[in-house]
Amino acid sequence: MRRVYVARHPTEAHFLKGLLASQGIEAEIRGEALFSARGELPVTSDTCPSVWVLDDSQLDRALLLIAEYERRERPPDTLGVRGVAQVAAKSLSPNSPNAGAAARHARTTSDL
Length: 112
Hints:
The protein is an alpha+beta fold. Helix content is 44%, strand content 12%. It folds into 2 domains: 71 residues, Alpha-Beta Plaits; 35 residues, no CATH class. α3 packs antiparallel against α4.
């Protein structure tokens, strides 16, 4: 059994476990309970949720899948404040009561 990934949060760990399971790779999550102790415990690779592959013979395939995930995965704040405001302004109809506010916010955050 080998640790193949240290997740930022339990949701990411479960997503990766499911990704591996979809390819026939059995895995488990360890350290998930420690996530709720953030602030009391230091944040390290030992206190974050981690994904472990149970069968060492599947390790290479698991690492390839995780490398592909890491290559494609985007940080949640990639758009930043400006991008989110612009998306919100474009998604509202012109007749929406919030359309003007969203458009103003998009313009005022354009220099961020």
